[in-house]
Amino acid sequence: MSSSHSEFLAGVRAELPLMIGVAPxxxxxxxxxxxxxxxxxxxxxxxxxxxGGSAQFIAAPLVVASTPALLLILTVLVVNLRHALYSASVxxxxxxxxxxWKGLLAYLLTDEAYAIAIAHFHKPGDARNxxxxxxxxxxxxxxxxxxSTALGIFVGAQVPPEWSLDFALPLTFIAxxxxxxxxxxxxxxxxxxxxxxxxxxxxxxxxxxxxxxxAGIGVGMVLDAQRRNKT
Length: 231
Hints:
single chain, about 230 residues, mainly alpha, 2 domains, about 0% strand, globular
C-alpha cells in the first residue's frame, strides 16, 4: 500500500467517529433551511459551496430576508474568521504543494478536519504525504455533510409549516457553545456577544449577528491580551 493511500485511509478512519456529531448538525440545517423558506436546491448548494455549519445556519435566514449580497458575504466572513487561523497553522506543512492541492485542502479545512489533521502533522515521520491525511478527513466530512443535509431537506419538507423548527437554530448553537466555556474569558466573551445581539436586534438585515460577533471577539481579544501580559 502506498504511503499516500495509507495516509488517506488514516484520515478517513480518524474522521469517522466525529460524524456522530456532524451528521445531526447537517440534518438540522437542512430541515431548518426549508422550513425557513430556502428552496431545497439552494439549501443543498449552500452545503456544497459554503460547507460551513455555523455560516450556513446564519446565512439561511439572511437569504430568506433578501439581505444584500455584500452584507450576507460580510456576515459569513466574520463568522468564519477562525479559518484564517487554521490556515496559518497548517501552512507550514502544506507550503510545498501545488496551488490546486492548496485550494482543495483549503475548501475541506473544517473545524473537525483541522483538529485531527494538525495533531497528525505534529507527529514525527515522513511528512511528504501528510496532506493525504487531511484530504481523507476532509472528504469524509464533506460526504457526510452533503448526505445529511439532503436527508434534512427531505424530512423538513414533510413537516407541516405550523410545526415550526425555528427553535432548532438557537438550541444548536447553545449546544455547541456551552462545552467551550471553560474559563472566565470565554464566559465573558459569550455573554457580551449575547448581549450585543439582543441590544442590536432591531437592526435591519440581521445586522445584530455581526454586532454580536464583533463584540464577543473584541472582548475576547482584550481579555486574552490581559492574560498574556500577566504571564
